[in-house]
Amino acid sequence: MYSFERRDSCPSCASELQDVLARTKFKSDQLWPVVALQCNAPEGSLGEQDYEAVQCPVCSTIYQSWVGNEELLADLYGEWISDELTDREKVRFAWLTDNPKLSRDAHDLMTAAAILKTPLSELKTLDYGMGLGLWAEISGKLGCASYGFDYSKSRTELAAMKGIRTTTLAEIDGANFDFINLEQVMEHVTDTDTTMTLIQSGLRPGGLLRISVPGQNALRSALKKLGSGTSPSASEIDPLSPLQHVNAFTSKGLRELGRRFGVIPISQFYAQRFAFLLKGGISVRYPIDGAKELLRPLLPLENRRNLTVWFRKPFRARKNPRSRCNTLSPHEERTL
């Protein structure tokens, strides 16, 4: 039987105010089908534990108040969730690594290089929570000094087999990375304060941080169904997926999380978002993908389905960077 730990404050803004949106047992008829669909958790392994979704009234972040302990998380990500790619995904991954400049990840790296006014070959990058290592591999193929980190031992070993330089938590602190990427990571993190402290310490002054997470989308209606005794679909509740997605951020919450740890939300000029055009970054083989990449810089980075926020670490450290009183003016949030 696994144990759970209660979170009494918002993972974004640290407010201790909570509004309960839904509460039911993980093993309930309404929720267990979703758990079983998304991971191979043994039936009965979660006992009488509640799934409780609460909302922060300050920043509107929705989060699971009860999260699994280290033993549960190790089994969840090490055994219950499969890393196997479909045949189609394998073909796609192989093509992207053979043509790295055409990938979406490469285009984000080119944007980072444009913002920093630094050649890709001089960038030191980290993919934190690298999963199967595609971003880190593409970064290396573009000439960056690319590193990857993942809590999963099997994923770390896979990355090493691909030639990706892996790093440890201890090595991230003070590593002076130019660009750190957290792609679909923070929604899984049970202790956002510890993670953000580490990430901030790993960035060089002036360095960039990109955080991308799922948007809340239809989550509120899914939780209403759950609260009324009806089963939501797995896709509806996915932004706060049982066990896995413990945080469902808002733009306000994600930006406040960055501010509390001394990194400033920034915007981008179109010239920076279209930097890939100067480097032959459009696919002819996949014209639909190429068209999407031409359109993507014109679209907002934040929508119902996905939130992406870019941050920059100031060149001069602010006093007490974790203080919520250190709010920034609109002028300070412009591109540095």
Report on this structure.
It is a single chain. It contains 13 helices and 13 strands. It is globular. By secondary structure, the chain is an alpha/beta fold. A seven-stranded mixed sheet has the order 8-7-6-9-10-13-12. The chain has a four-stranded antiparallel sheet with strand order 2-3-4-11, covered by helices on one side. The termini are far apart. The longest helix has 13 residues, at 104-116. It has helices spanning 32-38, 70-80, 87-98, 104-116, 134-141, 153-161, 169-172, 192-202, 219-227, 234-237, 251-260, 270-273, 287-295, and strands at 4-6, 19-25, 50-55, 62-64, 66-68, 124-128, 145-149, 165-166, 177-183, 203-214, 247-248, 264-266, 306-312.
